[in-house]
Design goal:
Layout: E1 38-44, H1 50-53, E2 65-70, H2 74-83, E3 87-94, E4 99-100, E5 103-107, E6 112-114, H3 119-129, E7 153-162, E8 172-178, E9 191-195, E10 209-212, E11 226-232, E12 235-237, E13 244-246, H4 248-254, E14 261-268, E15 281-287, H5 292-303, E16 314-321, H6 330-339, E17 344-350, H7 364-370, H8 372-379, E18 384-390, H9 394-407, H10 413-422, E19 426-430
Parallel strand pairs: 15-16, 15-18, 16-17, 18-19
Antiparallel strand pairs: 1-2, 1-3, 4-5, 5-6, 7-8, 7-14, 8-11, 9-10, 9-14, 12-13
Length: 431
């Protein structure tokens, strides 16, 4: 059973990722005609490294990364990606050499990534720079890697607010950063990278950590000049010494004071984007800080006024937490439910306070089992998008609940899930 309690060891967002997968040799083509050809692999789902896999807490998987591979090493790189749990989603030929479109390959939290991501992405970013953020809607206009690890934007902390109320577990902060003077723009469902100060245990500069953005493209101040994050401080016991260990980047962020500088990269990510169609239905299932992208969705749907977007569909958030004080953004969420009862449904799974039908703790998978019929009736509509963000272990329970509901209608859930995933209506970002 998966515990969705918000403990310091289980609620790790992108932020506590460690650097991994150094394939510098993949850039050296063999001295043959075929070996001099270079290909660009787009890879998703990479784990971090063997050391991270053995930790007692989950480390989030990476999003899409781009790896240059010479012809002579294609099989080896495919095997390496498979060993790291990754999946190659596309392969495209390049012209070879040590650069692509004049951009050097560089290491980020995930792999050796092309500084321009891909030739088409650089063109997309250039197009975005010529238009206001409010028009960045189509997938062809997704902003990616405007700021890269070797040249981050240095912003400043505007505010740092505690989200866990008295009696709750741990600390979780809502941070707002000033983007004035930058070209950074982003969409709901994307992430940014944060580079903490200092060096790692090997004396090398700290690698970036990725965090899901918790604000809409216009920012909390609605002026297109801020970005917000929801960050829980990582805290766990060292398995050998029993010493309390604090996450490098999450601790850095949680301790920021207004005016402090912060190094920002990105944005990245396409898996969790919210469609621009205002008539869709949206199911959101989150544990802990997995609420971050869903806060952005809901604020765009209900709290902002747009000339070109007015949400007319139905949104349902199922939110798993440990205790009532750990319900992040509780007041705002419940106000939305009261103001928009016909368009927004809010359901909690509070593990340490509520009981499932067996009398045990209520986790999000149990709540989905109770509500499986309602969920299925909504999921089978052609205009429904389902998003899951948080602890990876909840996926199995959700699948089991929906499988039962689908079977009652004569549908095989596994096959149906593949169909809606292929159609772009099933979105998962878990760790």
């Amino acid at each position: 059973m998966v515990n969705n309690d918000i403990t310091a060891t289980s609620e790790v967002r992108f932020g506590e990722m460690t650097a991994m997968y150094n394939s510098s040799t993949a850039d050296r083509a063999a001295n043959t005609v075929s070996g001099s050809r270079v290909f660009l692999y787009e890879v998703v789902g990479l784990r971090q490294n063997e050391e991270a896999d053995n930790l007692s807490y989950p480390i989030r998987q990476s999003g899409s990364v781009f790896i240059r591979v010479p012809y002579s090493r294609m099989n080896q790189e495919m095997q390496r990606v498979a060993r790291l749990g990754g999946k190659i989603v596309s392969i495209r030929p390049l012209n070879g050499g040590s650069e692509v479109n004049g951009k050097a390959m560089l290491t980020t939290a995930g792999s050796n990534v092309n500084a321009s991501t891909a030739p088409s992405e650089e063109l997309k970013s250039k197009k975005l720079e010529e238009k206001p953020m409010t028009q960045a809607k189509a997938k062809s206009d997704i902003p990616v890697n405007i700021y890269r690890p070797n040249a981050p934007f240095v912003g400043r902390c505007i505010s740092n607010e505690e989200l866990v109320r008295e009696g709750g577990i741990g600390t979780c902060r809502h941070l707002k950063f000033d983007l004035s003077g930058s070209e950074l723009r982003y969409l709901e469902g994307q992430s940014i990278g944060i580079i903490p100060p200092g060096t790692d245990k090997n004396g090398k500069p700290q690698k970036l950590r990725l965090y899901s953005i918790a604000s809409t493209r216009h920012g909390d101040d609605l002026n297109d000049k801020t970005v917000s994050l929801c960050v829980r401080q990582l805290e766990y016991k060292h398995p050998d010494t029993g010493e309390t260990v604090y996450g490098v980047c999450s601790t850095h962020l949680c301790n920021l004071q207004p005016g402090d500088e912060v190094k920002i990269t990105g944005p990245t990510g396409k898996e969790m984007l919210l469609p621009e169609d205002p008539n869709i239905n949206v199911i959101m299932m989150a544990t802990g800080t997995g609420i971050a992208p869903f806060r952005a969705y809901l604020w765009r749907m209900f709290k902002e006024t747009h000339e070109d977007y007015k949400f007319n569909g139905f949104a349902w958030l199922i939110f798993g937490v440990a205790t009532t004080p750990n319900i992040l953004y509780k007041q705002e969420l419940e106000e939305l439910q009261q103001q928009y009862p016909d368009n927004f449904r809010l359901t909690y799974a509070i593990s340490r306070e509520q009981k499932n039908k067996e009398g045990g703790r209520m986790y999000i998978q149990h709540r989905c089992e109770e509500l499986a019929e309602d969920l299925w009736n909504l999921i089978e509509k052609d205009n429904t998008h389902t998003y899951i963000c948080g602890l990876k272990g909840m996926e199995g329970g959700i699948d089991e609940a929906l499988s039962t509901a689908a079977s009652a209608k004569g549908v095989n859930w596994a096959d149906y899930q593949k169909e809606i995933r292929k159609a772009g209506r099933w979105h998962v970002e878990t760790y």
